[in-house]
């Protein structure tokens, strides 16, 4: 072992901070937990049978998913004439749902990767569930463009592969193709990031399970993890690398989604503000969904000591800041339209606020800009019920944002003769419902079989007990 | 490495960190340390060098980016040139997004597979934790008793002040560490 003098002299343990400083820092995990408590609290619910509440929620989600499956089967059999689309409004519910679900995913990556880079230790309580949410949301999102093709069995045509149709390739200059690459990369990298985080926890489950299926499966997927510090050292490096590449990835994904619109010549889409506006909106909607899920999960799975009011409050602050960016973007769009001197651009925004779809526009503004303003007040941020209500409003508002962007920009074309209206059909509504069914079914299965809290990461942020005198004197001797 | 190992078990990460530094300062050979979570500063206490996996990530990312740029160029201007909005055949800005995604994909998968390969982790590998509670709440420092001067009682006396929970001597068969 080669080691320099300096290396030897550097104390590995930083001097303990004075008690006064430690008091200022809020406790992340309450209830005076020690590592063994964390293992027990998170693993026990997985080892017990599912509760009645879980079965209730699961059967409801599965029913809704079934409705969706029936609707999708019907529309694939009959063709997308079963939708309310027409020649003017060529994109509506389907692409709204696609953008909505991709956006939901973004908060998971924000929490797991961006907050990791910023060393926000509170993320450890929510990152596992938020990443799972990302994964399931991207699965839901990915379904929509495939359904939208009308002939989903030809979806593989999106991939550049050598073929027998002459030298025919995909068009790399099209943002729609960029989207194919962005979404599939996002899905794969999120899945890998999630799985890498899971390996140590699966080893914990393996080592505490009795011989049986659980032990075999967790043994298979924990890849022989034994907690070696050499492996941990490399693992931390790779985790940091993954966080480092996932951060630009998440920004690129919604930037590219926004380019699906921004590179078109449709007034209301063709604006340079779209990438930052979409990224902020995506994180905003995702945080709302994280809050919705976490508030339910902490109650149902009795995780109040792990997902505390402090966590809820911090996510509220993030959501409020994102909401303000989104509000600013709405205002900027109007200002630029008024300032552009472009009559088509001006008309679109005038029509958005006062035209046939003004109800959707004002629903969006109220839910996304007005309602979140209550989060400026600390007592509201710390009131779980109110935060839950706000998060539901934001979920609804952000769905309407995509609906407004897509439908209001399209339904009044350049040519008044081609102006049209749009009403969703039952099939489209059932497909949207079905995607929620899929999302919640997957999330409930996740809660049932996989630790909802990153056990190994939470153990690292527990409050350290005070050292006793015996130890401190030993340190003094060593120094 | 000899076939005699000394396992020192601790309850707290601070104890483990201090004990590891002290053991290393006295020149004993640390085989490995087993912990339930990533203990910050342990790499320095053990004298581990920075991982070279960052290079794997960088190289895979570069292969992804440059490979895809080349492919997009070949498709767009050699084998299937199509005019999109009058842009040049090899329009670099419109090739950037896909090249970036492919860089991220290869960098991510490359570093994870490299991690698994270097750490010899693979599906179905039989795990032999040094003690079962190491993935729960125990920290184990494993020392090699190779040195002729290695005196277990002396080491025990040295480790006692760090709230040593258990000290165990283990004889291993050739090749295995546990």
How would you describe this protein?
The complex is a heterodimer of chains A (479) and B (178). With 479 residues, chain A is mostly helical. Chain A is 69% helix and 0% strand. Chain A has helices at 5-9, 19-24, 35-47, 52-78, 93-117, 127-148, 175-208, 213-221, 229-262, 274-300, 309-340, 343-354, 358-370, 378-381, 384-411, 426-449, 455-460, 469-478. Chain A starts with a helix and ends with a helix. Mean pLDDT of chain A is 87; it is low at 1-10 and 471-479. Chain B folds into 2 domains: 4-49 and 129-171, Alpha-Beta Plaits (2-Layer Sandwich), CATH 3.30.70; 53-118, no CATH class. The radius of gyration of chain B is 25 Å and the shape is rod-shaped. At the A-B interface, helix 3, helix 7, helix 8, helix 9 and helix 17 of A face helix 1, strand 2, helix 2, helix 3 and helix 4 of B.
Largest interface: A-B, 84 and 85 residues
Report how far the terminal alpha carbons of chain B are from each other. Answer: 12 Å
Helix content of chain A: 55-70%
Q: Count of DSSP helices of chain B?
A: 5
SSE layout and pairings?
The complex is a heterodimer of chains A (479) and B (178).
Chain A: H1 5-9, H2 19-24, H3 35-47, H4 52-78, H5 93-117, H6 127-148, H7 175-208, H8 213-221, H9 229-262, H10 274-300, H11 309-340, H12 343-354, H13 358-370, H14 378-381, H15 384-411, H16 426-449, H17 455-460, H18 469-478
Chain B: E1 4-10, H1 13-25, E2 29-34, H2 42-46, H3 53-79, H4 92-118, E3 139-144, H5 152-159, E4 166-171
Antiparallel strand pairs in B: 1-3, 1-4, 2-3
């Amino acid at each position: 072992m080669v080691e320099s003098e300096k290396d030897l002299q550097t104390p590995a343990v930083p001097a303990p901070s004075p008690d006064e400083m430690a008091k200022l820092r809020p406790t992340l995990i309450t209830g005076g937990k020690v590592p063994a408590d964390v293992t027990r609290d998170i693993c026990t619910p997985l080892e017990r049978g599912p509760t009645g509440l879980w079965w209730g929620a699961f059967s409801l989600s599965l029913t809704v998913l079934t409705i969706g499956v029936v609707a999708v089967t019907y529309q694939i059999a009959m063709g997308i004439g079963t939708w309310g689309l027409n020649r003017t409004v060529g994109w509506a519910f389907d692409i709204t749902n696609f953008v909505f679900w991709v956006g939901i995913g973004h908060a998971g990556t924000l929490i797991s990767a961006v907050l990791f880079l910023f060393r926000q230790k509170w993320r450890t309580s929510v990152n596992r569930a938020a990443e799972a949410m990302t994964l399931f949301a991207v699965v839901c999102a990915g379904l929509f463009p495939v359904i939208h093709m009308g002939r989903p069995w030809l979806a593989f045509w999106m991939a550049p592969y050598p073929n027998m149709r002459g030298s025919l390739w995909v068009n790399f200059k099209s943002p729609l193709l960029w989207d194919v690459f962005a979404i599939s990369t996002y899905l794969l990298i999120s899945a890998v990031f999630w799985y890498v985080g899971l390996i140590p926890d699966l080893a914990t489950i393996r080592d505490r399970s009795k011989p049986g299926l659980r032990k075999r499966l967790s043994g298979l997927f924990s890849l022989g993890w034994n907690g070696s510090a050499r492996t941990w050292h490399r693992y931390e490096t790779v985790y940091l690398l993954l966080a480092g590449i996932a951060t630009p990835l998440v920004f690129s994904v919604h930037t590219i989604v926004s380019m699906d619109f921004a590179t078109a010549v449709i007034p209301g889409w063709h604006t340079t503000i779209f990438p930052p506006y979409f990224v902020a909106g995506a994180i905003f909607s995702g945080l709302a969904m994280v809050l919705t899920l976490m508030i339910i999960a902490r109650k149902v799975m009795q995780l109040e000591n792990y997902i505390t009011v402090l966590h809820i409050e911090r996510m509220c602050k993030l959501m409020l800041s994102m909401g303000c960016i989104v509000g600013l973007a709405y205002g900027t769009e109007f200002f630029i339209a008024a300032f552009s001197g472009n009559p088509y651009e001006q008309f679109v925004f005038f029509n958005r606020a006062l035209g046939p779809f003004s109800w959707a526009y004002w629903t969006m503004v109220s839910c996304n800009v007005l309602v979140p303003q209550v989060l400026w007040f600390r007592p509201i941020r710390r009131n779980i019920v109110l935060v839950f209500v706000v998060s539901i409003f934001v979920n609804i508002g952000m769905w309407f944002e995509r609906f407004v962007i897509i439908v209001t920009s399209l339904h009044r074309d350049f040519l008044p003769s081609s102006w049209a209206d749009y009403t969703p059909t039952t099939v489209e509504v059932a497909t949207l419902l079905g995607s929620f069914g899929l999302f919640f079914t997957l999330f409930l299965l996740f809660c049932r079989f996989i630790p909802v809290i990153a056990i190994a990461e939470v153990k690292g942020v527990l409050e350290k007990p005070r050292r006793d005198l015996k130890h401190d004197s030993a340190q003094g001797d060593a120094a | 490495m000899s076939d005699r190992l000394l396992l020192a078990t601790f309850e707290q990460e601070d104890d483990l960190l201090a004990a590891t530094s002290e053991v290393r300062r006295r020149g004993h050979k640390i085989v490995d340390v087993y912990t339930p979570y990533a203990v910050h500063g342990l790499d320095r206490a053990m004298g581990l060098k920075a991982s070279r996996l960052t290079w794997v990530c960088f190289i895979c990312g570069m292969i992804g980016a440059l490979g895809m740029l080349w492919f997009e160029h070949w498709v767009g201007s050699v084998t299937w040139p199509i005019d999109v909005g009058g842009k040049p055949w090899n329009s670099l800005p419109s090739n950037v997004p896909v090249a970036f995604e492919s860089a991220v994909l290869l960098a991510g998968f490359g570093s994870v597979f490299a991690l698994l390969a270097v750490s010899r982790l693979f599906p179905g590998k039989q795990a032999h934790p040094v003690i079962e509670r190491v993935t729960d709440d125990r920290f184990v420092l494993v020392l090699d008793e190779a040195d002729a001067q290695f005196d277990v009682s002396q080491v025990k006396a040295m480790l006692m002040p760090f709230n040593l929970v258990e000290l165990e001597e283990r004889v291993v068969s050739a090749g295995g560490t546990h």
